[in-house]
Amino acid sequence: MRCGKKVGEIRLTYEEVVAYIESIPGFTSKTSLDHTRRLLDLLGHPEEGMKIIHVAGTNGKGSVCAYLNAMFVHGGFRTGMFTSPHLISIRERFLINGKEVSEELFVRAFEKAMKAVRKVMDDGDVHPAYFELLFLMGLLIFSEEKVDVLILETGMGGTKDVTNVVEHPLACVITSISPDHEQYLGHTIPEIAAHKAGIIKEGIPVICDGHDPCPVEVIRARAAEMNSPCLILDSDRVEISKITKAGMDFVLRQEMHPVRLHISQTAACQAMNASLAYCAMQVTKDVHHIPEEKLAEGIALMQWPCRMETVLPDVIIDGAHNVDGIAEFIRTVEHFHRDQEITILFGSVADKKYPEIIRLLAEGIRPDRVVVTKIAGTREVSEASFAELFRKNGVEEVYAAPEPGEAFDLARKLQGSGMLFCVGSLYLAGELKQYINEKQYVNETENGKGRSERR
């Protein structure tokens, strides 16, 4: 669609704006938080006065944001949510009350941001990096939309992440920490944790996943240095009572009284993510005043695409793409493998530890069959390479298809009455979601059993 023209200047279409943004380098060492602050100066600091909850971590950041968003929306608040990456549309990164923003608003924010960009470049400074520009646009969008609260996910790390220009959040949440983006964040858990803990601000409460004592020590020390109350959520405080295809029941044990919660997600790690979000709402209750029963109702309504998402009957897509994420994925799939055959559809990119991930999947699940595919692009790995690794790790029934859509159709045919899990990359998850939408898969019933075909 075309967004029209202004007198005396040509406006880019939405498609042209997206193409421009996608051409910007993802990472650069030339920009800094001072660069971001200078751009914010020119934009009038749209972030000032916003009520913000800041979320960092390796796995589970997006889920925690989604749980927070669901509770705030159910409590009657107008929310903004800034997350990454996107699966299909770049506008997924900017949500208002859970809905992606319009193309017109997206283009308008881009135009405002680019006026500041041109000013700093005229003065000899550099163009913002990909994520930096999107963050600036997000702040402009959420300011214009007058959101009551902004749920803000870091892009990578914390200390040097552009989102860390936010000075006075309501609370900070740090999810589980594991090796990822090691070329930027370091090769040890304490190094990575130090980056994540960089979002902690003076006197601001922090809630963190306490299942691993190694990063907790780093986070606790940083919180003490910043005089910040630190709530560490140990695994024994989150007790799962039931997991079914419909979701999970668990108990969050608090100092005052236990809270019984239900979520529609089936991955065991989501009980911790939901608990982190719930505790963040508890420590900020003097701001939002949402009753506990409303929080429990809201958290049960959370939907987050491609995080153990049931997209069709007995078909689940999960974006797990690093070793810790895959370990959690395996724990969930093992639960269902007791009663049903399991088919895995797998694809990954070159800079992930896919040989180790494949070994974990093969040994941890022992799937009945695997279909592999490739994700086209500069980080492409051939489907033949994946197939060979699965066979070397003991999977006998392995099939390969070069295109994700073709692989999905093949996996559906091979799935039979069992379950199909698609995993390995958020890029793969996005491509599969788009393929399912475009091919208009619909649910049908055959002999009383859920089934899907293409129209």
Describe the structure.
It is built from 16 helices and 19 strands. By secondary structure, the protein is α/β, with parallel strands linked by helices. The strands form 4 sheets. Strands 4-3-2-5-1-6-7-8 form an 8-stranded mixed beta sheet, with helices on both faces. α3 packs across α9, α3 packs across α11 and α12 packs parallel to α13. The longest helix is centred in the N-terminal third of the chain and has 20 residues. The N terminus and C terminus are likely disordered.
Task: Please render the helix and strand layout as text.
Layout lengths: L13 H9 L10 H11 L8 E5 L4 H14 L4 E4 L11 E3 L2 E2 L2 H20 L7 H15 L4 E5 L17 E4 L7 H4 L3 H8 L9 E4 L3 H13 L4 E4 L4 E7 L2 E6 L6 E5 L5 H15 L1 H4 L3 H9 L8 E4 L2 E3 L5 H15 L4 E5 L7 H12 L3 E4 L10 H10 L5 E3 L3 H12 L3 E5 L2 H13 L2 E6 L2 E6 L1
Parallel strand pairs: 1-5, 1-6, 2-5, 6-7, 7-8, 13-17, 14-15, 14-17, 15-16
Antiparallel strand pairs: 2-3, 3-4, 9-10, 10-11, 12-13, 18-19
